[in-house]
Write the structure tokens for this entry.
Amino acid sequence: MPDTLTDLVAELALANRILGHEGVLDAFGHVSVRHPDDPGRYLLSRSRSPLLIEPDDILEFTLDSEPVKPPKALLYAERVIHGCIYQARSDVTAVCHHHAPAVMPFCIAGKPIMPVFHLGAAMGEEAPFWDQYDEFGDTNLLVVKQEEGHSLARALGSHSAVLMNRHGATVVGSGLKELVSRAIFMCQNAEYQLRASALGAPEPLHRGEIELAGKISRLPTVVTRTWEYWSMRLQASGAMPPRRRAAKSPRPARAAARGRSKTRKRR
Amino acid sequence: MPDTLTDLVAELALANRILGHEGVLDAFGHVSVRHPDDPGRYLLSRSRSPLLIEPDDILEFTLDSEPVKPPKALLYAERVIHGCIYQARSDVTAVCHHHAPAVMPFCIAGKPIMPVFHLGAAMGEEAPFWDQYDEFGDTNLLVVKQEEGHSLARALGSHSAVLMNRHGATVVGSGLKELVSRAIFMCQNAEYQLRASALGAPEPLHRGEIELAGKISRLPTVVTRTWEYWSMRLQASGAMPPRRRAAKSPRPARAAARGRSKTRKRR
Amino acid sequence: MPDTLTDLVAELALANRILGHEGVLDAFGHVSVRHPDDPGRYLLSRSRSPLLIEPDDILEFTLDSEPVKPPKALLYAERVIHGCIYQARSDVTAVCHHHAPAVMPFCIAGKPIMPVFHLGAAMGEEAPFWDQYDEFGDTNLLVVKQEEGHSLARALGSHSAVLMNRHGATVVGSGLKELVSRAIFMCQNAEYQLRASALGAPEPLHRGEIELAGKISRLPTVVTRTWEYWSMRLQASGAMPPRRRAAKSPRPARAAARGRSKTRKRR
Amino acid sequence: MPDTLTDLVAELALANRILGHEGVLDAFGHVSVRHPDDPGRYLLSRSRSPLLIEPDDILEFTLDSEPVKPPKALLYAERVIHGCIYQARSDVTAVCHHHAPAVMPFCIAGKPIMPVFHLGAAMGEEAPFWDQYDEFGDTNLLVVKQEEGHSLARALGSHSAVLMNRHGATVVGSGLKELVSRAIFMCQNAEYQLRASALGAPEPLHRGEIELAGKISRLPTVVTRTWEYWSMRLQASGAMPPRRRAAKSPRPARAAARGRSKTRKRR
């Protein structure tokens, strides 16, 4: 885990861009992380496409998804997804909501994604479906109300991901790097499962294999290796996030950031 | 909306390149915008591949698709698509004709595209088909005669898009940015629908969802966010359009452009 | 048509790279052009991957596919494809043999490609199949013997393209730019036809449409526009061919090349 | 074959990156080569994503997959795949284990890949399946124990590749360049076979064709041409491996490397 809030904010910007570059996020979708010092808060960007997010875009929210400071920019309409899941799942420290092309056919056809190769086990045995229409009737399909967020969190239950009919998916993790790996592996799994279905009805891993292989994706060695790989790819594309802008005060940026963070919490 | 004709011309060149870069347009296809000061005219590039279009390529046409000034370059053969739709639809201020790979399977198989995810609702409940053969028999499939353009406009009716059998699609909007979003979202929708059909027969959004979700894609916040994202992607590829060439007169480029535009209208 | 042999050689190198960059050629495949001053000869690169070909790699061959000068480098094993077609078809001035991913499913499944959209009409009404096994039994599937080349040319007949079972395709044209357009449009057509077949059994254009739309792809305006577009894409990727190396003599490169060409013919 | 160990180490780093760039390897997968001077040893990178591997990452292993020198970095968990195959197959001098998207649908559906085009014959007549579950029950699907490696090597038998259910593939060769070509051609073949299956049930090459065409991919001319092509593509992407870091001793790098290699063998 990063050792300061500044580092975590930088990692969150990087996570957004990695997922944007690897085809999980596009103009839409977002990633958040629980505040390391205060489990009652989470960090999320202002409303912006993930590949453009900078550390300075990251804001702090309560678990009711209210910004801790009065916002100077537009916020994501669907941030209740994050707040409601952090409320329901104390083990979760990172959340990603996305509409990746790899999962959309399953969200549209209403067919389950199941782990079909060893890395796909990162998603767990199953990802339940949540259909907003069932409880809320006709909506614009965005999850914007607290009750919609809570309903989605209930559907997620103790799983690692939930599929949202005609909309997308939400994935959770116990760390940013684990979350990023899981989201990417699950997309690869969905892609392979779709293509395998052209050859015959694919079967999932054996139950014991899912459990054993699922642990691999959470190993620090795996998570470190994939993070290095995806960061390199992002860097090669010229899209690494800039550093946080220099603080106005003469203090070094890091100390300043720490200071700002304390100030915020006092509010 | 851009506040001067020069800005709108620049935005039109950018719209062409964004759609070229996002895989909606390729060597062919074109985007036009209605003249902001004269609803009886529209702006369209000379005949050129969209990713190459510069502000200086943009010409002014009457709704009969005649160039206002004698042209010095080749014109698109199919510009009647634009003129006829502007005649028929006073609410339309931007038109795109394309042969995107995502829609072609549907145009070839004659199967309807229907909104299958929230952003796909940007296309509306349905996109009617128009088969040039039905009214005109054997043609080269290009829409070049006024009566062909009018026939296509009738098929479009009050919809946001029309599919052209064995040819492509034409999409309309009440603004350039809305049009660009709609064209891209509709292609994503078609792609997901095709892939979902490998898993089972996909169902469209509920009717109420289409209406409610359809409004999202027209929200200024959405349109601004996607425009920023697609522009960034275009810029990262090194393909941003150049600015308008400096006028020969010593007047600043913007004033000069305004002047030229006035001159044109006097003709 | 380019006005000197030097220009044609440069255009041939560019054609190779455009087709390499647009996904028609990869490590393999080749493009040739008939000698502009001597219909009994053709120009083809030494054995090299198309995206790497430079003007200095282009060599001159008789229609028996023998190099006019003793070669200093390896030659393509399958150059009889070119020689035999130039012998059989006086109207053909350019030939491309390829294994494009878009056509391979059809060459493998033995299912015909048919024009399913207006630009696909560039391939003509049909592309016959040629199975090397039928006449020659077990081979390594390469077309290396004169009799194999003649057999392929017979199967091509008066068509614009021939599909080679379990191997690839050969496309011909009455000019390099026409050939490049036809090869690319035919690949797009194959790709759309394959994808459309997931939605239902696609139908070809009406016969009259094929003839009328087929003429479009040969229009100088179309051929010029697509050539500009594909060249721009190649340039953006940094892969434009270098110019011919300066001649040792003090004469300007162009004159020198012309001189060399005359010298060659004297042999 | 490279003439010094230093050259072979550089070639191994390059092979890793070529396969990473051509979509055979991603964050995972690895390539090894048998030690040119000692058939009882092989060379393999420390645990790292293939596109990042540098000559300095390459380590020496015994055929029991033990590092010859105490390692300073993490090692691949699955290196027994390499050691066990080198033990079983004296004709094999290069091994690649991968999870390429092209082969995964077959590994998941349990359907055989068969040579369907001339270059696909590089894989030989068939690639047997190996299901880790059959002999070892529930595992994490990684091949980490000696007995798992030996079981996989037995399944490979005298073939050129083995498919691993719900996991990936392992390919072997009698040289690094042959291996790289085979791995890439087999992926192309799998991709074409999958797509052809949408048109009908594809048939393999005739048995005699497989043998004759299979020899093509091993010809030095072919292997040299494809290696040049893939290297050029890697270079164009800016991802060529760096050279070995200068040795601390004043000896030139090459001599120093040779010296180090001798030292190692003395251990």
Q: What stands out?
A: The longest strand of chain C covers residues 168-173.
